[in-house]
Amino acid sequence: MNVLFDLDGTLTDPFEGITNCIVYALETLGRLPPPATDLRWAIGPPLLGSMEELLGSRELAIEGLRVYRERFSSVGLFENGVYGGIPELLSGLAGQGRKLFVATSKPTVYTVRILDNFGLKGFFTGIYGSELDGTRTDKGELIAHLLEEEGLDRAETVMVGDRSHDIVGAHANGLKSIGVLYGYGTKEELDSARATWLAETPEDIARTVNG
């Protein structure tokens, strides 16, 4: 079984970095930001859409994303932490000879730096993210690109993620999926998206993959 992993809310907890950078962007553009705890919904989905919801227009959202990246590229991406049990999960799966990949809406350039910073990069056969121009921020398109580039058998590949767009993207490509409950999506969100399995912990992910 090949395993595709989302990044934010699945491998690492980016709450501090993402919310700090959204607050920075809103304040820079003269907007009063909501409390950080009210921005949890923005973790996971493509950020441009979240910025558009916060700022009210696509034009402002593009500028907001540019300002967000000013801080994120130097500070925010390191305001992050690996979930407990993730290194052991990845080590165990890789040790079984499974091919592991990252499939995230976050730009690849940031994703590689984050994984390298936490010593996780070496577990992955390939790291797939979006481009800074917005290409492949849609999870379905990203997964399709990954499957084609790597020549993976859909019947032998599973997507692991914490938000509905991870599960919807898996369905769009004929993949089974594992929705993780320790991230930023609720059980209701993952059930509604029709996750094949749910996992409360990284250990549950291992048991499901090996089941």
Describe what this molecule looks like in 3D.
With 211 residues, the chain is α/β, with parallel strands linked by helices. It has 2 domains: 2-13 and 81-210, HAD superfamily/HAD-like (Rossmann fold, 3-Layer(aba) Sandwich); 15-78, Putative phosphatase, domain 2 (DNA polymerase, domain 1, Orthogonal Bundle). It is 45% helix and 16% strand. The chain is built from 9 helices and 8 strands. The chain has helices spanning 15-28, 47-55, 58-72, 86-95, 108-117, 139-150, 164-172, 187-192, 202-210, and strands at 2-5, 12-13, 81-82, 100-107, 126-130, 157-161, 176-180, 197-199. Helix 1 crosses helix 3 and helix 2 packs across helix 3 (58-72). The chain starts with a strand and ends with a helix. The model has no long low-confidence stretch (mean pLDDT 96).
